[in-house]
Amino acid sequence: MKRILHATDYSENAVPALKYAFNLSEKLNASLFVVHVFDYPTIFSKELKEPYENLEEKSYKTHHDMLVDFCTKHYEGDIDEVDLSFDAIEDKSIVNGIMKKANNLNADLIITGTKSEKVLKELLLGNTAKKLIEKAPCPVLTVPKVQNVKNLDTIVYASDFEKYDISAIYNLVSIAKPFNATIKIVHISLKEDDEEIRKMEWFTELLNEKIEYDNIDVEIIFSDNIFDALSSYLEDKNADMVAMLERNSKGIMNMLFHIDLVKKMETLGNVPLMSFNENRL
Fold first, then answer.
1. For every one of its 281 residues, what pLDDT tens digit does the chain have, with 9 covering 90 and above?
2. pTM, to two decimals
3. Is the domain of 45 the same as that of 124?
4. Are strands 182-189 and 216-222 parallel, antiparallel or unpaired?
5. DSSP helix/strand/coil, 87
6. 19 in a domain, yes or no?
7. Domain presence at residue 11
8. Closest Cα partner for 36 from 80, 114, 77, 97?
9. Across the chain, how many H-helices and E-strands are there?
């Protein structure tokens, strides 16, 4: 993982996600690209042309300077020593702006916050958060308001025991290794039968064949409420991050996404959510 993209609106509510992005990029020895997406007003009257000359250039400079100041203020150290780049992006859609930058960078990870007011408003509007995860060329990490990536001991991966999970877990290992974190793979099943046990055995064998990482546990939980079972499991394991695979037509992510992102993250507690897309693996 070499390039991390973080989008911010430089509000106070966005500070925790920024600090998370700083800490994670340093731990992974990755380049961090911090961006702000803005939109300037459309000018309809020719009479207003004079005051708005060079509007694009001035707007870019204003937002770029605010972005640099925001990052400098909230970095605990000498920001000149960080592998860090800034970019102010003009786009009417925050998500489109993030997507363009991610594609241009060939980003390995996108980090967003759930308590950043302006970004959050659009991410939730029309289920756009799901669209970002569906379209992003890389995993999307959503960070709650209170977080500290310096203590990343336990990562929970909610699995359906399918082959696409292997690719997602392979990518997840690149984050877990620098922290020597344990990855706990859990499958929550609505029915208790031998077929589910055999599926877990098949998946575990495939996992051991494809991935070399010792700190991985696999288990299955039987429950008639997947969301409540996952919430209890995260609390019981004191999870520092939860990861899931977004599928086109089935899977845990589809079951959970009818609940909006804010309510879901509040229910799960202060646990960052890493979302993979099976079409991008």
1. 899 999 998 887 788 889 999 999 999 999 999 999 988 654 444 444 445 556 667 888 888 999 999 999 999 888 988 999 999 999 888 889 999 999 999 999 999 887 545 554 544 433 445 667 778 899 999 887 765 666 799 999 999 898 889 999 999 999 999 999 999 999 988 888 889 999 999 999 999 999 999 999 999 999 988 888 888 999 999 999 999 887 765 555 455 544 444 455 555 667 888 988 887 77
2. 0.85
3. yes
4. parallel
5. strand
6. yes
7. yes
8. 97
9. 10, 10
Task: Give the chain's end-to-end CA distance (angstroms, integer).
Answer: 14
Scan for tokens 């690719």, then name that residue. Answer: 167
Residues 16 and 139 in one domain: yes
Residue type for position 69: D
Q: How many CA atoms lie within 13 A of 234 on its CB side?
A: 25
- Buried residues in 186-205 as b, exposed as e (16+ CB within 10 A): bbbbeeeeeebeebbeebbe
* Residue for token pair 């599928």: 247
Token readout for 156 is: 């929970």
